Amino acid sequence: MNYLSNTCPIVSPVFSIFLGCNLIVSDFNQIGNLLCQFPISASYGNLIKVESSIDTQLSIKEGIYSEITISLWDQSNRPLIFQDPEMTCFLIIESIE
Q1: What's the rounded Cα separation, in Å, for the pair 65 and 10?
Q2: DSSP letter at 6?
Q3: pTM to 2 decimals?
Q4: Beta carbons within 10 angstroms of residue 53's beta carbon
Q5: pLDDT band, very low/low/confident/very high, at 8 (cuts 50, 70, 90)
Q6: Tens of pLDDT, residues 68-77
Q7: Sequence-separated (6 or more) residues with CB below 8 Å from residue 91
Q8: What would the 3-class secondary structure string for 56-97 be?
Q9: Rounded to 5°, angle at Cα 48 from 51 and 31
Q10: CB–CB of 14/75 below 8 Å?
Q11: How far is CA 43 from the centre of its chain?
């Protein structure tokens, strides 16, 4: 007996990545520590590469910090679990007065 499904399988339910940082303060969105958001344009299993030439000016919480924590989650606020431990992320912080 054959059966043709009426739904399409979802290989990867993640179509957008949110990048958060513990130093960020933002009153402009519901996620207070949101650094940036980008869509996934790579096919399943391939390298996700994001290049941006847009500078983002965000406020940093007052205080002294011993570490910067970067967190990644999907469009449904679920933490991302990576199979590949190799990741490169450049974060440039400068003071604008």
Answers
A1: 41
A2: S
A3: 0.70
A4: 4
A5: confident
A6: 998 989 988 8
A7: 21, 68, 70
A8: CCCEECCCCCCCCCEEEEECCCCECCCCCCCCCCCCCCCCCC
A9: 75
A10: yes
A11: 17
Structure-token pair, residue 21? 């940082």
pLDDT tens per residue across span 11-60: 667 888 888 888 888 777 777 788 888 888 877 777 777 777 677 778 88
Q: Is residue 45 a contact partner of residue 34, using CB atoms and an 8 Å limit?
A: no
Q: Which bin fits 63, alpha (ψ -120 to 50), beta or left (φ > 0)? A: left
Is residue 80 within 8 A of residue 14, CB to CB? The reply is: yes
HSE-CB at 52 with a 13 A cutoff on CA atoms is: 12
Which residue is associated with the tokens 């391939």?
A: 46
Separation of alpha carbons 87 and 72, rounded Å: 12
